[in-house]
Amino acid sequence: MPKMPLSIRPAAVADLPALCAWNAAMARETEGLALDPAVLERGVRGVFEQPQRGFYLVAERDGAALGGLLVTFEWSDWRAGDYWWIQSVYVVPEARRDGVFRALYAEVERRARAAGAASLRLYVETENRRAQSTYERLGMRRCHYAMYEQVL
After folding, report:
1. Counting Cβ atoms within 10 Å, is residue 16 exposed (0-12), middle (13-18) or buried (19+)?
2. Measured between alpha carbons, how far is residue 14 from residues 11, 48, 53, 141, 145 in Å?
3. Phi, psi for residue 124 in degrees, rounded to 5
4. What's phi and psi for 128, nearest 5 deg?
5. d(CA 135, CA 129)
6. pLDDT at position 82
7. pLDDT at residue 35, as a whole number
8. What pLDDT does 2 receive?
9. Per the database record, which ranges form the N-acetyltransferase domain (predicted)?
10. Domains and CATH numbers, the chain
């Protein structure tokens, strides 16, 4: 029996429990981190409370949420446009390798082009070769920047 098609929609506050669960699972899987649930909920809720921070998208099939991602914005004075950063990508394990991220990415790309974004960007764990391969198949290329951070 053929699968129902995927649909991509903007996340709503009602998706907050799923978004928090997905973020916690992604942090555990990719970095071995246990996120503080209260801080995580405030962080996810903060996107809904201040939409200039970004937006979440959710992928569904037959009414079941299968994954999502966050898009945030960074102004580039060099390009006089926003870089759209793809973050907090998560696809439930049973739906992986089934086009969920591809569909989410296509919707982000469509929205970014319509908004006149300068580029799409994301960061990925250096050891996550599977994700890197996926991003390259979608047309993304490794850039020449290394990331530094000072946690405050």
Report:
1. middle
2. 8, 11, 18, 35, 37
3. -140, 145
4. -85, 75
5. 10
6. 96
7. 96
8. 65
9. 6-152
10. 6-137 (3.40.630.30)
In the predicted model, residues of the chain with pLDDT beneath 50 are none
Tell me the two tokens of residue 34: 């246990």
Q: At what angle do helices 16-31 and 37-49 cross, to 10 degrees?
A: 130
CA dist., res. 23 & res. 30, Å (int): 10
What is residue 134's predicted lDDT score, i.e. its pLDDT? Answer: 87
Beta bridge partners of 9: 58
3-state secondary structure the chain: CCCCCEEEEECCHHHHHHHHHHHHHHHHHHHCCCCCHHHHHHHHHHHHHCHHHEEEEEEEECCEEEEEEEEEEEEECCCCEEEEEEEEEEECHHHCCCCHHHHHHHHHHHHHHHHCCCEEEECCCCCCHHHHHHHHHCCCCCCCCCCCCCCC
Enumerate long-range contacts of 73-78, CB under 8 Å, 24 or more apart. 74/121, 76/118
The radius of gyration computed from the CA coordinates of the chain, to the nearest angstrom, equals 16
Read off the tokens for 146: 């290394």
Q: Which residues pair with 55 in a beta bridge?
A: 71
Question: Measuring CA to CA, which residue among 94, 34, 29 is closest to residue 59?
Answer: 94
Q: What predicted TM-score, i.e. pTM, was given to this entire model?
A: 0.91
